[in-house]
Write a structure and sequence with these properties.
Elements lengths: L22 E3 L2 H11 L4 H6 L14 E3 H14 L6 H6 L9 H7 L4 H11 L7 E8 L2 E8 L7 H13 L12 E4 L20 E2 L5 E6 L12 H21 L1 H15 L6 H7 L4 H10 L4 H19 L4 H7 L5 H12 L3 H7 L1
Parallel strand pairs: 5-6
Antiparallel strand pairs: 1-2, 3-4, 4-7, 5-7
Helix pairs in contact: 1-3, 5-6, 5-8, 9-12, 12-14
Length: 354
């Protein structure tokens, strides 16, 4: 059992990543089509709004871009029963195998621990809209998710659906147990009882500092009924190849982020020229490559300063002013504004929770 931050080895991209730059599996269209038919909607007409021709659609080929994926979620929200959480209604049509090869690897994992590790390692293949990482805190593992793109009015819907899908692993454990606590940053919009088909209502919490699921370490050894080591290894190899492609396409972002993180946490003062020099490049070339990968130097610096500040707030007794200074902010007020903008909570409030 080995839990660590950024468990998948794929570093997060700029939170302002354009939706069109994101790619999602085409099989997600089938989930929406199933929900539309259940609700009595004209699936073909609705899907045509996303530029999709259901009558001539081969879900084995191609990908959805982020704009199309957002439109699919908007359609689900439009036709859903207004008295039930939309995420719950979507999840009724989401078998774990809807996530393709990753779903098969999770299903055939021997234990909950292995299944979660697979999800954390390979999630960019099916859900590039989020950064997902795990941290061991005491006797628990916290799997935290952070949005990398703005999905507007369907952002909370997507977040709820993602954590609900993660929680669905529990149904393949014998005996079936409610092993996860689900935490959502957004306020409660429905009674917690509305989520009972996907999670224990007493283990769903809203208006929290961040979106995450929490599991006790003692439960990670729980065996999956569908375990098959040979099948898991066959499909895991295919996922490895896909992850290598993703990592290769984000090579400058990964290396730049790693250097920035090291410099910030070492308390160094640095510039884009310093980082470019470490990479054997010029600042102009580095900036161009980062732009091609959908991010920027300033965004990566800001993101890493905020991440380091969060670690200090939760794990040290340093006050807000000290944290701001150590994370590289010029003053406490600019730090507080930036932190709340990124995390949705003031550093003082997070400090009290920690």
């Amino acid at each position: 059992m080995f839990w660590f931050k950024k468990a998948n080895g794929v570093m997060s991209t700029d939170p302002k990543t354009e939706l069109k730059a994101l790619h999602f599996p085409m099989q997600y269209v089938e989930i929406v089509e199933s929900m539309l038919r259940q609700r009595g909607a004209d699936a073909q007409t609705m899907l045509s709004r996303c530029g999709l021709d259901w009558s001539n659609l081969d879900t084995r080929k191609g990908v959805l871009n982020g704009e199309q994926f957002k439109q699919l979620l908007e359609i689900c929200q439009e036709v859903a029963d207004p008295d039930k959480p939309v995420s719950v209604q979507i999840l009724e049509h989401v078998p774990l195998t809807a996530h393709g090869i990753l779903g098969i690897v999770i299903l055939t994992s021997p234990t909950l621990d292995c299944a979660m590790q697979a999800a954390l390692r390979f999630y960019p293949v099916v859900m590039p809209a989020y950064d997902i990482h795990a941290e061991a805190i005491g006797e628990q593992v916290h799997v935290v998710i952070k949005s990398l793109a703005d999905f507007g009015s369907v952002q909370t819907l997507l977040t709820e659906t993602l954590l609900g899908a993660f929680n669905s692993i529990c149904q393949f454990i014998k005996p079936e147990l409610a092993l996860f606590d689900l935490y959502f940053a957004h306020p409660m919009q429905f009674s917690s009882q509305g989520y009972e088909t996907v999670a224990d209502p007493e283990r769903v919490f809203f208006s929290q500092p961040c979106d995450k699921i929490v599991v006790d370490k003692r439960n990670l050894g729980a065996a999956l009924l569908t375990a098959n080591k040979t099948t898991m290894q066959i499909f895991e190899a295919q996922l490895e190849a896909q992850i290598r492609e993703i990592q290769h396409s984000m090579v400058y972002t990964q290396e730049t982020r790693q250097i920035i993180r090291q410099l910030i946490r070492a308390g160094k003062i640095f510039s884009v020229d310093d980082v470019a020099f470490e990479m054997g490049s010029s600042s102009r070339t580095l900036s161009r490559h980062l732009q091609q990968e959908g991010t920027s130097y300033s965004s990566l610096v800001q993101d890493e300063r905020i991440e380091f500040a969060e670690v200090l707030l939760l794990n040290t007794r340093k006050n807000i002013s000290q944290v701001a200074h150590l994370a590289g902010f010029t003053n406490e007020s600019s730090f507080s504004r930036a932190f709340k903008r990124h995390k949705g909570i003031a550093p003082s409030a997070l400090k009290r929770i920690g």
